[in-house]
Design a protein that fits this description.
Elements (H helix, E strand, L loop, with lengths): L1 E10 L2 E11 L4 E5 L6 H8 L7 E6 L2 E5 L7 H8 L2 E4 L11 H11 L5 H14 L15 H13 L5 E5 L7 H16 L4 E4 L3 H7 L2 E6 L2 E6 L1 H6 L4 H11 L5
Parallel strand pairs: 3-8, 3-9, 6-7, 7-8
Antiparallel strand pairs: 1-2, 1-4, 4-5, 9-10
Helix pairs in contact: 3-4, 3-5, 4-5, 5-6
């Protein structure tokens, strides 16, 4: 469903992603793990072109965009990819002057041009889905971090994207609130939602990921199932990383 081919991303002289090629099957959950600065978030943002690769290609379904230095990518090409993705950010990024339901409705009305009635019905459906049906009229400031993130997940799901991208969805939360978000993402995974997430939370990755990709210095070090990567990694660098994280987290 999603194919990344030889993705390179440079900021000035710094190479953040260095020739990454990966595929993410439809209905799968992939966790991007590794040390800070390894390229996880940049790779995630390259999938929906919030960051445009320096070179390489991104394909979702039948839509493919090739990046060649010196060639300007058109807005239509960007939208062909971005329109198929939903993004969940680390710090929620809800509109503070919109209620929970208005946050979910906003993109449907302003971008998708839905009627308010249709957008509201969709928002109610999704807030119920993430366990926030009782907080439709609450302001973000009245919600806990876990509740805000669940509203953010509902917002990302609103236009029915083909893939949900999650950038450190639990890292701003304490363990109890993080558990709320893990439960919601787990239910979505069980329903067959395609997800790619960058995370330091190995508990989240081990619980719901079909595929784990270990990144360091902008390169893929090792890929495998969650059981294989966390239980029997093959590369020495992966072993050290899993061991160090496991000392602080209970898988």
């Amino acid at each position: 469903m999603i194919t990344l081919t030889d993705i390179v991303k440079r900021f000035g002289e710094a190479t953040i992603l260095n020739g990454i090629s990966l595929s993410f099957p439809e209905g799968s959950v992939t966790a991007l793990v590794g040390p800070s600065g390894g390229g996880k978030s940049t790779l995630l943002r390259s999938i929906n072109l919030l960051e445009q690769p320096t070179s390489g290609a991104v394909q979702i379904g039948a839509d493919r965009v090739d990046f060649v230095p010196g060639r300007k990518v058109s807005f239509a090409e960007i939208q062909s990819i971005r329109g198929q993705t939903g993004m969940v950010f680390q710090n929620f990024q809800l509109f503070p002057h919109r209620t929970a339901i208005e946050n979910v409705m906003e993109g449907l009305i302003t971008v998708q041009k839905w009627s308010r009635e249709k957008a509201r019905a969709r928002a109610v459906e999704l807030l119920e889905k993430v366990g926030m049906g009782h907080k439709t009229d609450a302001w973000p400031a009245e919600l806990s971090g876990g509740q805000q993130q669940r509203v953010a997940i509902a917002r990302a799901l609103a236009p029915s994207p083909r893939v949900l991208l999650c950038d450190e969805p639990t890292s701003a939360l304490d363990p109890e609130l993080a558990g709320e978000v893990v439960d919601v993402l787990g239910k979505l995974a069980a329903e067959g939602t395609t997800m790619v997430m960058a995370t330091h939370d190995l508990r989240l990755a081990s619980k719901i990921a079909n595929q784990v990709v270990f990144l360091e210095a902008g390169q893929v070090v090792e890929t495998g199932t969650a059981d294989a990567i966390f239980g029997n990694p093959q590369r020495e660098r992966t072993k050290r990383f899993v061991s160090s994280i496991s000392a602080a987290q209970t898988l």
